[in-house]
Amino acid sequence: MINVTLNGEKTQVPEGLALREFIAYLGLPAERIAIEHNREIIKRKEWDAVKVKDGDTIEIVHFVGGG
User: Fold this and answer.
1) Which regions of 1-67 does DSSP assign to beta strands (E)?
2) pLDDT at residue 31 in the model
3) Which of 15, 27, 47, 51 could form a disulfide with 19 if both were Cys (CB 3.0 to 4.6 A apart)?
4) Partners of 37 in the beta sheet?
5) Burial class, 48, CB count within 10 angstroms (exposed 0-12 / middle 13-18 / buried 19+)
6) Which whole number is the average pLDDT over 12-36?
7) How far apart are CA 46 and CA 61, in angstroms?
8) pTM score > 0.90 for this model?
9) Residue 26: its pLDDT value, please?
């Protein structure tokens, strides 16, 4: 397990996850979120290439539709 800061809170997650796997691990719907990884917005097409590492800071924003 590694330590990351997720939306301002320290948490432990399995080592070696790509961002897409990280989202799945958290049980979040990938189609309705945006990810900031260490203060950089990561494009959805790059989620498989970016690995979560010990000490990373990740912010996840959920999109909500409405009318």
Assistant:
1) 2-6, 9-13, 33-37, 40-42, 57-62
2) 87
3) 47
4) 40, 58
5) exposed
6) 94
7) 17
8) no
9) 94
CATH fold label, 2-62: Ubiquitin-like (UB roll) (3.10.20)
Structure tokens at 4: 């990351």
∠ CA 26-28-33, nearest 5°, is 125
Q: How many CB atoms lie within 10 A of CB 47?
A: 17
Spatial CA neighbour of 54 closest among 41, 42, 35, 38: 38
Domains of the chain by residue range: 2-62
Encoding tokens for residue 43? 């494009």
